[in-house]
Design a protein that fits this description.
Layout lengths: L13 H20 L3 E2 L5 E3 H8 L4 H6 L2 E3 L5 E4 L4 H10 L2 H4 L3 E10 L11 E10 L4 H18 L16 E7 L6 H14 L5 H9 L26 H16 L4 E3 L11 E10 L1 H4 E2 L21 E2 L3 H4 L2 E9 L3 H4 L7 E7 H11 L2 H7 L3 E7 L5 H14 L7 E4 L7 H10 L4 E5 L1 H5 L2 E6 L5 E5 L4
Parallel strand pairs: 1-5, 7-8, 14-15, 14-16
Antiparallel strand pairs: 2-4, 3-4, 5-6, 6-13, 7-9, 9-12, 10-11, 12-13, 16-17, 17-18
Helix pairs in contact: 1-6, 6-9
This protein binds adenosine-5'-triphosphate (ATP) and magnesium ion.
Length: 464
C-alpha cells in the first residue's frame, strides 16, 4: 500500500518552504511597523462558531467545512478562515472590554473542502490582519494599504507584463460597500427586484433569493447573467455613503489603484459596509510560460532573465481574475458572538496564490531574498583528518566563513572516497568544497574547490 498526502494537500519542501517562511516573515515585519500583534489561535474550534459567524447559507459552511466529532461527541471544525477564531479569542480574553484599540495579525493553515486546482487547495495558508474598535474608514484604508504593501514587497504590485494578445497583467483593488443594518434591507430589496426579473436562476440561487440574496452575486454558475445589477452604492444610508466616499478619497490620497465593483459581495455573511478584494489577471489558467513574446517589463524568471508571457487562451479568459487577498468591515460580528458592540475591519491573503504569482512575475529581489545561504561541503582526502575536518565544519556552521556568514555546511562524511565526496557535493548543489589533505594540513592549509568552474586553490585554515 503506497500512502499519499490527502487530496488537496501538499508537502512543502526546501525552497518552497523557504518562500513560505520568507513571505510570513515579511508580513510580520510590515504588520509590526503598523502596530499589529501576532496571535496564534487553535486550528479547530466548535463548528457552531463558524456557522454563526460565517453564516449558514455560504459556500464555506454549506460545502467546505471539515467537521468532526471528538471522543466526547463535541462537534468541531478545522478552521476555514481566521477572522472568526480571532474574534472568539478577542471576546474570550475580554479585549472588547479592556482594550481601546486592538490590532492583530495571524499566519497559518486553513482548511476547506474544495475541488483542488492550481491556487486552490484543501489545506492552504493565509496571512491576515484584524483592526478592532475603530469605526472610521481610516481603519479600512490602513487594512487595504497593508494588504497592498505586502503584495508590493513580494514584487507583485510593480509587475507590468503584456500578453501576446495585447492584454496587460494588472493588479487592482476591487471595492464595494454592502451597507449597514440600517440600509442593507434597501439594497436587498433592490437586488431581489432585479434578480426576480431574471429567468433561469440555478437551484442554489433560488434558495438564496429568500435567505441571502447578496450571496447570489457570487454564484459561479449564474454570474454571467448579472449584467445590469442596480447600482447598490446609490441606496446606501447617509452614514454608509459618507464612509464609503471618505475611504475612496483616502485611497486616492495614498495613490492606491482601486475600482468600485458593484458585484463584489464576498463569500462570508459577516461583512458590513466596506468589502474589498485585491485581484490580478488570471495567470494561473491563462498562460503558457514556455513561449516567449516581446515587451515584457519588470518580469524575471528564476535566473533573473526577463520573463515573457504567451496567452494560451483568448481574451475571455484573460478577463477572468484571481483573488490574492480579500477582506472588509464586520461591525456586528463581535456583538453577534456575544461580545461588546465593537467595530472591526480585516483582510486575509492566500499565501500559496501570492507565491505562485510572485514566482511567475516576481522581481529578482524575490529570489535573492531566500537564496541567500550558500552550500559549502567539507571533504577529506585522508581519513585520518576526519576529526579535524569535523571540528572545522562545526566551527564554520556556528560562525560562518570570514567573507560569507550565510552558509549551509555539509560534511564531512567518513569512509568515503574523495571522488564520492565531490560527486555528493555536486549533487547537493555545493558552491564550494573545502578539502582536508594531509600534506596541506601540515602547513595549516586546505584546498578550496569552486564547484562551478572546478578551479582549486590553497587557503590557510585560520584565514577562512
Ligand atoms: P475564492 O473566491 O477564490 O474561493 P474566497 O472568497 O473563498 O476566494 P477568502 O475566504 O476571502 O477567499 O480568503 C482569502 C484568500 O485566501 C483568497 O483571496 C485566496 O487567496 C485564499 N484562498 C481561499 N480559498 C483558498 C483555497 N482553497 N486554496 C488556496 N487559497 C485560498
Ligand atoms: Mg472560496
Amino acid at each position: 500500500m503506497n500512502y499519499r498526502a490527502p487530496r488537496g494537500t501538499h508537502d512543502i519542501f526546501g525552497e518552497d518552504a523557504a518562500k513560505m517562511s520568507w513571505l510570513e516573515q515579511k508580513a510580520r515585519d510590515i504588520f509590526k511597523k503598523h502596530g499589529f500583534e501576532e496571535v496564534r489561535t487553535p486550528i479547530f474550534e466548535e463548528s457552531s462558531l463558524f456557522i454563526r459567524s460565517v453564516g449558514q447559507p455560504t459556500d464555506i459552511v454549506e460545502k467546505e467545512m471539515y467537521t468532526f466529532e471528538d471522543k466526547k461527541g463535541r462537534k468541531l471544525a478545522l478552521r476555514p478562515e481566521g477572522t472568526t477564531s480571532l474574534v472568539r479569542a478577542f471576546i474570550e480574553h475580554k479585549m472588547d472590554v479592556l482594550m481601546p484599540v486592538s490590532k492583530f495579525f495571524y499566519a497559518g493553515e486553513m482548511f476547506r473542502y474544495e475541488r483542488p486546482q492550481s491556487g486552490r487547495y484543501r489545506q492552504f495558508h493565509q496571512i491576515g490582519a484584524e483592526f478592532f474598535c475603530v469605526s472610521s474608514p481610516v481603519a479600512d484604508a490602513e487594512i487595504i494599504l497593508l494588504a497592498c504593501d505586502l503584495l508590493d514587497f513580494v514584487g507583485i504590485n510593480e509587475m507590468e507584463a503584456r500578453f501576446d494578445n495585447g492584454h496587460f497583467f494588472e493588479m487592482k483593488v476591487h471595492l464595494n460597500s454592502l451597507g449597514c443594518r440600517k440600509c442593507r434591507h434597501v439594497l436587498r430589496e433592490k437586488l431581489v427586484e432585479y434578480l426576480i426579473s431574471l429567468s433561469n436562476l440555478c437551484e442554489n440561487c433560488l434558495r438564496r433569493l429568500v435567505k441571502n440574496p447578496l450571496r447570489i452575486l457570487d454564484c459561479k454558475t449564474d454570474s454571467y447573467k448579472f449584467t445590469e445589477i442596480p447600482q447598490l452604492s446609490s441606496y446606501l444610508c447617509d452614514e454608509c455613503k459618507h464612509d464609503f466616499d471618505l475611504l475612496k478619497s483616502l485611497l486616492e490620497v495614498a495613490k492606491c489603484d482601486y475600482v468600485v465593483d458593484n458585484k463584489l459581495v464576498r463569500g462570508l455573511d459577516y461583512y458590513t459596509k466596506t468589502v474589498f478584494e485585491i485581484c490580478c489577471s488570471d495567470i494561473l489558467s491563462s498562460i503558457n510560460s514556455s513561449t516567449p513574446i516581446k515587451d515584457a517589463v519588470n518580469c524575471y524568471d528564476q535566473n533573473f532573465k526577463p520573463y515573457y508571457i504567451k496567452a494560451r487562451r483568448m481574451n475571455k479568459d484573460l478577463n477572468r481574475r484571481i483573488t490574492l487577498a480579500a477582506g472588509g468591515r464586520y461591525d456586528n460580528l463581535v456583538k453577534d458572538l456575544s461580545g461588546q458592540d465593537t467595530p472591526a475591519v480585516g483582510f486575509a491573503l492566500g499565501s500559496e496564490r501570492v507565491l505562485i504569482v510572485a514566482e511567475k512575475f516576481g522581481s529578482p529581489e524575490f529570489y535573492k531574498s531566500f537564496r541567500k545561504f550558500e552550500k559549502v561541503y567539507v571533504a577529506i582526502a585522508d581519513q585520518e583528518l576526519f576529526k579535524e575536518a569535523f571540528s572545522f565544519a562545526v566551527k564554520i556552521a556556528r560562525n560562518g566563513l570570514k567573507n560569507s556568514k550565510d552558509i549551509s555546511v555539509f560534511g564531512p562524511i567518513n569512509d568515503k572516497s574523495l571522488t564520492w565526496q565531490l560527486k555528493f557535493a555536486d549533487k547537493i548543489g555545493a558552491r564550494k568544497t573545502i578539502i582536508f589533505v594531509k600534506t596541506e594540513f601540515k602547513k595549516g592549509k586546505v584546498l578550496v574547490k569552486n564547484m562551478e568552474n572546478k578551479v582549486q586553490t590553497e587557503a590557510s585554515i585560520c584565514e577562512l
